[in-house]
Known about the structure:
The protein has helices spanning 2-36, 39-60, 63-69, 75-106, 112-127, 130-138, 142-165, 170-191, 202-236, 239-273, 278-305, 307-315, 322-333, 336-348, 352-374, 378-404, 408-435, 440-462, 464-472. By secondary structure, the protein is mainly α. It folds into 2 domains: 1-231, no CATH class; 237-479, no CATH class. It starts with a helix and ends in a 9-residue tail after the last helix. InterPro entries: Poly_Biosynth_Transport. The chain crosses the membrane at residues 42-68, 80-103, 115-137, 144-165, 171-191, 211-234, 254-271, 291-315, 327-346, 367-395, 438-458.
Amino acid sequence: xxSLQNNVSKGILWSAVDVSLRQGSQFAVLIVMAxxxxxxxxxxMALLALFAGLANVFVDGGFGSALIQRQxxxxxxxxxxxxxxxxxxxxxxxxxxxxxxxLARLFDKPxxxxxxxxxxxxxxxxxxxxxxxxxxxxxxxLKLIARIGGIASAVSGALAIGLALxxxxxxxxxxxxxxANAVSTLLLWHWxxxxxxxxxxxxxxxxxxxxxxxxxxxxxxxxxxxHLYSLLIGKFYQVREVGFYDRAQKTQSLPxxxxxxxxxxxxxxxxxxxxxDRERLSRAFRKAQRLVLFVNTPLSILxxxxxxxxxxxxxxEKWLPSAPLLQVLGIAGLLWPMHILNTNVLKAQxxxxxxxxxxxxxxxxxxxxxxxGSFYGIIAIAWAQVAASVFALAVNAYYSKxxxxxxxxxxxxxLLPSLTAGALAGAAAWLQSQHSGFSCYxxxxxxxxxxxxxxxxxxxxxxxxxxxxxxxxFKKRSLQH
Length: 481
């Protein structure tokens, strides 16, 4: 199906542009702000991430993924989901406002109360644009998402830096989030033609809930696992330690999230299109897996071996306690794309029930490991994430083996060439940084260049097909054939 390949290739490229603009500009702003603000300022915002995230999950309700997965969607369906999003957004706003004073007392941080009000407003604003983003993703119209993301990131980033320079502390971070969401929502309504019908169908809502309801519970468990560290560290240690851990996690996840946001938007839609043809789905899944691992593996290994120069060069010496955490979390990041693609394949086949089962198992284990790690210190929490990631891969690949004959051992075989080349490239970068005597900036630049050169040479020898497939994405002919 050339049209599918054409759409997927274009989708990947425009998704890359969107994520580069949005994530890249946001990270550039955070680099500037990390040098202005304190670890405690970032720690305060990290404490709010769990509760704001929970509210956002309830607003979506899993219906966004349900709309993408279902092939025959009516305007009534779309309008029903839109009004459901608004109702849940308002409910989340009220719930967060009620919760605000209790959060401030729990962590002994009075500023959490007004900041929670700001995050509550942000959740409600986002509800107005959720359906537009879902429809654009389903259509693989990621060029428009890229344009909107770039503008929103530029406006909110400029605002955040200005506020930080004026001494607004964590407020500069909070208002950056609100501004980005508000600008994105306004532009979605301005540039996307979709408008709701004044109708609401409970039967439509029930039919989508059968798929989306499972995803809602899974998303809640995933969010609790992802942000549980902030609760535990904030309650039993210090808020500044939350800032250090959050900085390490965000830095480690930047390349992983970049890759997965690029691929994830396209992969789920493409996999859903191929859901009835398991042979083609299996081939598409394996190709996507190889491509993602080809890019993610060297980036994760570089994060591990160059953690200290990365932290020093980007954020400054006050953030140096983040470096050991960054090294450990980088190990977990090696496997993360494999988790996402395995679960995308399952969702694309409409098996949200099985997706629910495996996610509940692995997230329960991950939450237990995180709580266990909190008794032994912050670095133990990071190692708990590594253990959870290894366990999750075995669980995620279980149904891939059953449905597509692509289990954990075959997936690890596909990882091996990239891992071998990445490990040798990382070793070259580490040796260079240990014996150079240069500044952190020079170590980072030289290490990255050397590792990249070694990796590409070894990849050429070990896995020519993947390198060819990867470069083919960026050639014009790949968009036409």
